[in-house]
Write a structure and sequence with these properties.
Elements lengths: L3 E8 L3 H10 L2 E8 L7 H8 L6 H6 L4 H12 L5 E3 L2 E2 L7 H4 L4 E4 L10 H4 L1 H9 L3 E5 L7 H9 L4 E5 L7 H12 L3 E4 L6 H9 L6 E2 L8 H12 L5 H17 L4
Helix pairs in contact: 8-9
Length: 260
């Protein structure tokens, strides 16, 4: 049975149950982002997502406390060899630098963040530190978070390792921008969650980007969705070795290599 690395999950359920889901679906390792929303419920968070710039209440009660959220999360998954933790970063919190040396991946989620017009400039101090230390920078795309700024960051830091989270397409132009960003930047990868179907996997492979695609499910609580995103790869009309690359080999390569 094909081994899998899931490059995008969240610890939204009990850890033991989470690990059982991974084992059941032959997922050898998972990149895991914390899912603690601070004092807010998911419905409240959805309301905040509607506006890029967030109110002070949200910034003070949540974004500025990501250090505590990350610390609790790292303690929770410590010693679990199936989990590769990816702490949650925001430019609103200036005390997250110490986490970079402790992990292989850091994650930015613009839709949950205070996206001012200069947001991508404001995250650069953390990006620079991560690049210097050889870490991977994962940045959410979709739901209003554009692909172009991620490609521009990858261009500015050619020695960095960048991953676009999601194949989410807000409009017909998003895939055009994604193809351009990936084609231009050899240090930029994309994970497959929220892709519209196997045809999108085929399109990216046809564009000779198969080596920079990573299987991702964005798994939180729905195992059915996780299985569907696996099927999105396995049902694609592409060579078996490319499916193996997307599901496993590309992730191993990215996690192990240093870009020159």
């Amino acid at each position: 049975m094909q081994k899998i690395i899931d490059f995008h999950t969240h610890l939204a359920i009990d850890l033991d149950k989470f690990l059982k889901v991974l084992n059941k679906n032959n997922i050898e390792k998972a990149i895991v982002i914390p899912y603690n929303l601070g004092p807010y419920g998911f419905k409240e968070i959805l309301e905040f997502i509607r506006t890029p710039e967030k109110p002070k209440e949200f910034i003070n009660n949540f974004l500025k406390k990501l250090d505590k959220i990350n610390e609790e999360f790292l303690d929770q998954v410590k010693g679990c060899d199936k989990i590769i933790p990816a702490p949650w970063f925001s430019p609103e919190s200036d005390n997250l630098s110490d986490f970079i040396s402790k992990v292989d991946i850091i994650k930015f989620i613009p839709v949950f963040d205070n996206v001012t017009p200069d947001y991508y400039s404001r995250i650069e101090s953390y990006v620079e530190q991560a690049v210097e230390q050889g870490k991977i920078i994962m940045i959410h795309s979709g739901w209003g978070a554009k692909v172009k700024p991620i490609g521009e960051l990858a261009s500015r830091y050619p020695k960095g390792k960048f991953v676009m989270a999601h194949l989410k397409e807000d409009n017909d132009f998003e895939m055009i921008d994604r193809l351009q960003a990936l084609s231009k930047n050899k240090n930029l990868y994309c994970e497959t969650s929220y892709g519209p179907g196997p045809h999108r996997i085929e399109q990216l492979v046809k564009a000779r980007l198969g080596k920079r695609m990573l299987y991702g499910s964005d798994y939180r609580t729905s195992e059915t969705s996780l299985k569907w995103y696996i099927a999105q790869v396995t049902y694609a009309n592409i060579k078996e070795e490319i499916k193996e690359d997307i599901l496993y080999n590309n992730a191993i390569s990215l996690l192990q290599k240093d870009l020159e």
